[in-house]
């Protein structure tokens, strides 16, 4: 009830703000207030399931594809527009001092989440499922996990239930977990399930959380020096560039690879949602299965996801030699070892494999323009004339202020880690492609932050774009 009152108060504040600035907007504001009040009432009083049911629903999401993949395009467009409206409302109803306070202590959200994930609290909530759990029961769960995973138990000081409860109350206040105020029991929800680390959650974002909370967070502390001196803030903070850092820190490197895997785990369905019809058209036109090259594709999880929808297709994953063993193990795990092969390679050198589609996912944004041109020219060198290049990147243009903020954040992340790496505009992608003898054909927005930039090889550079 208290949360409902807060939301209604913020809505009223927004109405007063509008009415004091533009009287002609009163009608709109009244309608908006009525809609928000009705939505909050329905969610809070009528439609909201019990905490136990919410926990069951959250665990069920690990067994099903994200619901947005099954939603019609118009519904997602409405949802994205709604995000933009709510984002702007959130800014309008908060006084500047309150927004400043949130900005000052925003780091605590990341570090608080990381602390809970490191102690595997979210996994304890998942094990409790619809029954929920107390802080004392979570401490017992953590001690049992420590005993079970270590051949020789390491003596540790037990976690203090009172201190853990304070951290969980912080998490509940930020809606990271649910709490029953009457019983004091905590429950998993659709947010915290994302951070579970069990075998049933290959898309866990916990590795990405650790990645950002540790070495990347240190990089942000030197951003001002990086901008002033035109150096990598990550390198200033950690003593090495990002790739040398991971060479010297195998545990961090292993976590980074898991973080990259989590990004790719659910990416193939999103890509197919935007491009499956084109793959099908290729098969109809050429009367044969397609062959995909995933350049810089890691262990090949995206290629495997695409092949699962195209049972006769084949793929080649090209990446550094040290990824080969892990990739081949993954191919066997998903029963695709006869249809995917790993080829060690360097995407700065001409590729030795001819493909129908060359997929580069989140590759170009890691490099400056000179290096990006070298990569694109290397891919272009041996491309058959009928083939297509698919760049999956964050294209900066958007009319949605919510996604504008997220895209700008990702761009800042590139600045922190690499200095001269960046997210690019459509015009900048077009220029890179033109100088590397490609012609950009289409930009296909995917759900959320990413786009497919489709291009074809041409013999000479040109400016045409359909």
Explain what you see.
The chain has 466 residues and is of the alpha/beta class. The protein folds into 4 domains: 1-48; 107-195, Winged helix-like DNA-binding domain superfamily/Winged helix DNA-binding domain (Arc Repressor Mutant, subunit A); 206-261, no CATH class; 262-457, Rossmann fold (3-Layer(aba) Sandwich). Helices cover 56% and strands 10% of the residues. It is built from 20 helices and 9 strands. It has a 7-stranded mixed beta sheet with strand order 5-4-3-6-7-9-8, with helices on both faces. It has a two-stranded antiparallel sheet with strand order 1-2. Strand 3 (291-295), helix 16 and strand 4 (314-319) form a beta-alpha-beta unit. The termini are far apart. The model is unreliable at 22-26, 151-155 and 462-466 (pLDDT under 50).
């Amino acid at each position: 009830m208290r949360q409902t009152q807060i939301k209604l108060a913020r809505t009223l504040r927004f109405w007063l703000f509008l009415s004091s600035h533009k009287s002609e907007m009163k009608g709109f504001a009244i309608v908006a207030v009525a809609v928000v009040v009705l939505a909050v009432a329905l969610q809070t009083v009528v439609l909201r399931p019990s905490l136990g049911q919410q926990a069951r629903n959250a665990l069920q999401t690990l067994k099903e594809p994200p619901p947005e993949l099954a939603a019609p395009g118009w519904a997602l467009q409405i949802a994205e527009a709604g995000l933009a409206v709510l984002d702007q409302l959130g800014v309008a109803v908060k006084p500047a001092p309150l927004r400043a306070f949130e900005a000052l202590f925003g780091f605590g959200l990341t570090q608080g989440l990381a602390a809970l994930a490191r102690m595997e609290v979210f996994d304890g909530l998942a094990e409790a499922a619809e029954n929920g759990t107390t802080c004392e029961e979570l401490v017992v769960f953590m001690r049992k996990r420590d005993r079970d995973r270590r051949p020789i138990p390491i003596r540790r000081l037990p976690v203090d239930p009172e201190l853990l409860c304070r951290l969980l109350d912080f998490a509940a206040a930020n809606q990271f977990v649910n709490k029953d105020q009457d019983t004091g029991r905590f429950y998993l929800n659709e947010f915290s399930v994302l951070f579970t680390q069990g075998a049933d959650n290959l898309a866990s974002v916990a590795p990405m959380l650790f990645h950002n909370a540790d070495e990347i967070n240190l990089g942000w502390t030197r951003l001002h020096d990086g901008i002033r001196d035109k150096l990598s803030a990550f390198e200033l903070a950690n003593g090495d560039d990002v790739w040398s850092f991971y060479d010297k820190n195998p545990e961090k490197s292993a976590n980074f690879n898991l973080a990259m895997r989590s990004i790719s785990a659910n990416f193939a369905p999103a890509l197919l949602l935007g491009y499956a019809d084109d793959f099908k058209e290729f098969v109809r036109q050429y009367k044969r299965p397609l062959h995909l090259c995933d350049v810089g594709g890691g262990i090949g999880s995206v290629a495997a996801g695409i092949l699962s929808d195209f049972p006769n297709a084949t793929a080649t994953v090209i990446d550094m030699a040290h990824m080969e063993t892990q990739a081949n193990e993954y191919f066997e795990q998903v029963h695709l070892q006869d249809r995917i092969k790993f080829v060690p390679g360097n995407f700065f050198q001409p590729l030795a494999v001819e493909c129908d589609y060359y997929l580069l996912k989140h590759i170009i944004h890691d490099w400056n323009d000179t290096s990006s041109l070298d990569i694109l020219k290397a891919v272009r060198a041996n491309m058959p004339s009928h083939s297509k290049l698919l760049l999956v990147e964050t294209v900066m243009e958007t009319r949605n202020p919510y996604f504008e903020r997220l895209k700008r954040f990702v761009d800042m992340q590139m600045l922190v880690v690499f200095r001269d790496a960046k997210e690019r505009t459509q015009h900048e992608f077009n220029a890179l492609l033109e100088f590397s003898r490609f012609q950009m054909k289409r930009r296909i927005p995917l759900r959320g932050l990413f786009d497919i930039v489709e291009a074809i090889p041409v013999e000479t550079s040109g400016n045409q774009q359909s």
